[in-house]
Amino acid sequence: MAFAAVYFLIGIFSAAYWHQVDRWLLVLRGCLVNVIYRKTLTIGLNETATGASIALMSTDVEKIIFGFKWIHEAISGMAAIPFALYMLYFQVGLAVLAPIIIVGICTSLASVLSVKTTQRQKTWLEKTQQRVQFTSSVISSMRGVKMMGLQSRIKDTIETLRTSEDNAARKWRLSIITGVGLSSISVEASKWLTFVLFAIFSYIKHHGDGQVMNVKTLFTSLAILSIALGKIEIVIQSIPSIVNAFGCLIRIEEFLIKEVKSDGGLPSARIGESLDLTTEKTSLIHAQFQEANNDSLEMHRISQSTHDSSGSIIQVQRLSAGWSQEYVPVIRDVTLGISSGHLIMLTGPVGCGKSTFLQTILGETTVYQGSIRINSQNAIAYCAQTPWLINKTIRENIIGVSLFDPLWYKEVIQSCALSKDLKSYLKGDRTLVGSKGVGLSGGQKQRIALARAVYSRKPILIFDDIFSGLDAATEEHIFDHLLGQGGLLRRNRSTVILATHAVRHLPFADSILVMSKEGSISVQTIETLGINPGMVELLGDEKGKESPYLDDDKDEGYNESFDELESHDEASSQKHASEGDNKSQGGGEIDAFKYYFKSIGWRHSLTFAGLAATQAVLWNILTIWLEHWSSDTDPSKTTYYLAVYTGLVLAFIVAYVVWLWHACGWLMSVSSLNLHAWQLKKMIKGKISYFNTTDVGVITNRFSQDLVHVDMDLPAALINFMESALIVLGVLGVSLVATPWIAIMLPFLGLCFFYVVRFYLRTSRQLRLIEMEAKAPLYTHFQETLTGISTIRAFSWEREFEEENEKLLLTSQRPSYYLSTAQRWFAMLLDMIVAVFAFAIVLLVVQLRHSINPGFIGLALLNTVSLSGSLKILIVFYTNFEVSLGAISRIRQFNNTVPQEDDGMMHSFPITEWPSRGNVAYQNYAASHALNSDIVLKSINLNIPAGSKVGICGRSGSGKSSMVSALFRLLEVQGGSITIDGIDISKVPPNILRGRLNILSQEPFFLAGTIRQNLSYGCVADDNNLDSEDLLKVLERVGLCDKVLALENGLDAELDLAGFLSHGERQLFSLARAMLRDSTIVVLDEFTSSVDVETDLKMQRILRDYFWDKTVLTVAHRLNTIVDYDTVILLDKGDILEMGSPQELLQQPGSAFKALYELHEDFSDEGV
Predict the structure, then answer these.
(1) DSSP string of 892-927?
(2) 58-67, 100-109, 212-221: which has the minimum mean pLDDT?
(3) Is the pLDDT of residue 660 over 50?
(4) How far apart are CA 579 and CA 442, in angstroms?
(5) In 165, 492, 713, 846, which residue has its Cα 20 to 30 A from 268's Cα atom?
(6) Any alpha helices (H) in 898-1027, and if so which ranges?
(7) pLDDT at residue 132 tops 80
(8) Please, which residues bridge with residue 457 across strands?
(9) Mapping DSSP to helix (H, G, I), strand (E, B) and coil, where does residue 291 land?
(10) What pLDDT does residue 343 have?
């Protein structure tokens, strides 16, 4: 009874202890995630661009939790070890020194190894981050990658990165194998040396006459050694995790003490609010930093004023600012004042620093000298050039943290030309926009971001080139309803600062700020700029013009009844958004298991299983051999038993190390490389329709989070599960051999165990899946905060976003708490079952003590001691293995469901010189974006002669981009064909076709890497064929050469878009890249939308120099760029509405092209 009672008490107190540990770890995780998020809200844009806080709050925090979980166990283990050794001394005497010596050596080696392990892990994580970052950029830019025909090259690059990552992972896993091997060696070597020394001492003591080893001494010593060495094993194995945890804590500390962003242009009271978001410790650090740097900060502080005699709401005095901490000013010596209620337009050449000036007002840059004073608190609303949206509904994106006002909301919707868009959606403004607005067009995203700024009713609104990418009718509607005479913002007396290239809007400005390339700003008027003041009246007349083509652009309003937000709609939308990512996690374990072992291969699978069985058999033979030794009373056989025991120990250690070496060195690498290669191939060949309708984060997770499971979690769980299962089988087998009568109890205990395990696995499996799903919104919130940090801070929404983070954190903690509670319940119940098993064994042993071999009794009791722990470990690792298989299920589903483009092997490859002429013909061509979607091009018939220049125009949604996509085989053909030089493009492999064409798009793609690498993507072949002279030549032609050479590493510097290239300069960079590709057909897809008139003219000159002898197809918003083309095509609802010579159409009465041209004419010849 006492034996059973001990087990019952162990189960109860262990469950209570681990429950408290789990609660403490959850509190620690909550504190760390919260403080990291608060700090994220205060750091500069250059820090947020690295995404360090996401890695800290996910990977580093999880490592800290894992490491700290074992701190108490390690401490208590070190405290228990001396007592166990003291008890062992009474059994084996001086032989007790053996485990002390072995463990001391192994612990010292493990401590030294942990440093190397940490370094190798850091290298591996850096390689992983490099691959994931590049892959993520490819997924985000898949349309550009495909249109440039770079699939094969990008695939090779990613596979090279994956191989480099795997090589680093192998070195790290070698360190892990060594650590685990040291742990196992310390256990078995300690037992071996203990019994060897004891046998030698005993043999000498009895002069070879008495029994060297007896049952009592053997199994008492084994029991004590099992306890002591178990604790020692925990200490040794926990050292790397604990060291790694403290390393992660140091990284978090380094992040927390980073300098907060400069005060910028925000009121000082606002900055104080930002500091209030940090913890007490962090606030103290910030206060100390500010005190230490008081002199420098005070000179540049931009403060709030309650009274200003000049009447300016914004005052700038001798301001110089830039992005670097060193003195590299982009804005130089600017002094100006902005009056309340005025419309201020900021213009200037590409790359002069317009966006930098706006960011300086927002407080996001480094102020070197001078000051900005904003005479209002929490006053700014901001709409960036690249719209920022969160993965919620359209209404939630527009309202933000403001209260819902139905009348004001409706007016904002109509003013921002969103009414018709909302009507086109089944759920109206409750439609989920998707991650980064994946479900919306570029213009829709821009207008929703604009509506958010207007809805906020802030006294100051800052707009950064918000009209780029909008068609003429939409642009005129928005400008007239917001900023025109009687516009919404005019009526509200809002102060508006608008950075723009649209010269035709300048006459409406109260003041015009003209920025030079040197960074200076001058205040101008219409008269001083030389623009005709009568343009205002002329524009007003244009708005009154009517055309049948333009009638449909009139906004009739959005008449939905705007009631309060319904949480049910939001929840259902969120559920739908994550459904595709998680729907495969709950089932298909057998198929996933088969798929995983398919990636390993049958040879490695059989080798793995054989080695596992070998080491398990040897481990059990060791104990059985000791039992035989203790039962033999002949001292003359001592040498024989010692030799065989030593050989068995060495054989076990070798088998165990070889098994781990094969698993970590081969099995993991082969599986991870194959699974990555399979899904990479599917992704590269996936149809563009899949990427248009699938959240980028979902695809990225297949190559990040899921591959982390494949690389480490899954194989580690498999290894541990296999080892634990074999140990349990060995324990039960030995117990049955020792006491066959125990077989009577096994069916009953097995039935109880089966039902308990089944109930637990059902619960834990669902809780683990819920836990994974609950963490996803938290990670998304972090990512959205990083991408929109300047907008959040401009609106003064830090506190609201912090509260949202706390809610999401609390939601993510709940399933973790429930799961840990279920685990403690299960562990306690297992202890109860084992207690019954132990009671049964003791009862049988006592009753049958005269008929059972004493050695077998010792074996049975010894195995009972370890059975409870082995069973718990077995179930835990099985659960981990099953959950990790979810990654395989998702990868398998990804590979089976991504629609694939035609395989190039099905087609004949055209000659190398094709297309030599550049003749393009559409013949009754009809197409849709997806197989079952609406037709976007309707029976297009068009013949483009070689070398001709064709302009394609039309309002948003008319089919312009679809015409381009069709040429690159990005649409689903519903009828007809397209031929190039007489060859049907459907018979040409897509990658070959796209590599023979040239494209300049509205949104040029950039991939993670150096300037050289991104520029060299103009060539389909590897960039080794291009030397620096070729690259610098094209950069010189577009005016970016000096800027690149000014960087420390020149062409080999990392391409940092945020601090290096403005939006217009990105277009110039894209033009330079296109100049490296020689193709007879060039497609220009609204690529001058983000540049000023002067840069536009420069780009047009370059185009004429480099591409004028080619066949050119231009999709244009600026119709003045295509008036000298051979042909213009006006599209409407996927069909050709008008086609002909632009000069003839402009002279034709009632021409739809003429009406659109007159509406869009921007008077660039009278520009700045």
Answers:
(1) HHHHHHS-BPPPGGGSPPPPTT-SSS--EEEEEEEE
(2) 212-221
(3) yes
(4) 25
(5) 492
(6) 960-967, 990-995, 1011-1016
(7) yes
(8) none
(9) helix
(10) 92
Cβ neighbours, 10 Å, residue 203: 18
* pLDDT grade for 545, boundaries at 50, 70 and 90: very low
> Alpha-carbon distance 413 to 409, whole Å?
6
> Encoding tokens for residue 946?
């070689």
3-state helix, strand, coil in the chain (%, to 5): 65, 10, 25
Provide the residue type at 465 as one letter: D
State how far the Cα of 1063 lies from the Cα of 1058, in Å rounded to an integer.
Answer: 9
Which residues, in sequence order, are CB contacts of 561 under 8 Å at separation 6+? Answer: none
Q: Among 624-638, 710-724, 1046-1060, which stretch is predicted with the lowest mean pLDDT?
A: 624-638
Count, residues in the chain: 1168
Note the pLDDT of residue 555. Answer: 46
Nearest CA-CA partner of 385 in 1089, 1161, 1116, 1099: 1089
Hey, what domains does the chain have and what are their CATH numbers? 2-256+581-894 (1.20.1560.10), 268-298 (no CATH), 386-457+472-482 (3.40.50.300)
- The more confidently predicted of residues 903 and 352 is 352
What DSSP line would sit under 75-103, residue for residue? HHHHHHHHHHHHHHHHHHGGGGHHHHHHH
Q: What pLDDT is stored for residue 161 in this prediction?
A: 92
- Residues 873-878: contacts with CB under 8 Å, at least 24 apart: 873/720, 873/724, 874/721, 874/724, 874/725, 874/727, 874/728, 875/757, 875/760, 875/761, 875/826, 875/830, 876/823, 877/717, 877/720, 877/721, 877/724, 878/721, 878/761
Q: Are 835 and 11 in contact (CB under 8 A)?
A: yes
Residue 392 phi/psi, 5-degree rounding, is: -135, -165
Question: To 5 degrees, how large is the angle CA 147–CA 700–CA 927?
Answer: 35
Peptide bond into 715 cis (omega under 30): no
pLDDT score recorded for residue 530: 61
Q: What is the distance between the alpha carbons of residues 648 and 651, in angstroms, rounded to a whole number?
A: 5
Cα(189)–Cα(103) distance, rounded to whole angstroms? 9
Using 50, 70 and 90 to split pLDDT, how confident is the model at 852? low
Token code pair at residue 725: 């299962």
Banded pLDDT at 857 (limits 50, 70, 90)? low
Q: What's 356-395 look like in SS3? A: HHHHHHHCCCEEEEEEEEECCCCCEEEECCCCCCCCCEHH
What's the chain's average pLDDT?
79
220: Cα within 13 Å, side-chain hemisphere: 12
Question: Which residues have a Cβ under 8 Å from the Cβ of 412 and sit 6 or more positions away?
Answer: 398, 451, 454, 455, 488
SS3 (DSSP) at 1133: coil
pLDDT digits (tens, 9 = 90+) for 378-425: 789 999 888 888 888 899 999 988 899 999 999 999 999 888 888 877
Report the 3 state secondary structure along 525-567: CHHHHCCCCCHHHHHHHHHHCCCCCCHHHCCCCCCCCCCCCCH
Segment 1033-1041 shows an average pLDDT of: 89
The first and second tokens of residue 571, run together, are 């929840």
Residue 549 — φ and ψ, nearest 5°? Answer: -70, -30
Q: How many CB atoms lie within 10 A of CB 737?
A: 13
Q: Which residues have C-beta within 8 Å of that of residue 4, sequence separation ≥ 6?
A: 835, 836, 838, 839, 842
Q: What are phi and psi of 778, to 5 degrees?
A: -65, -45
Q: What is the largest CA-CA distance in the chain?
A: 126
The answer to whether the Cα torsion of 1027, 1033, 1036, 1038 is positive or negative is: negative
Tokens of 925: 């061509």
Residues 1055, 1011: contact at Cβ < 8 Å? yes
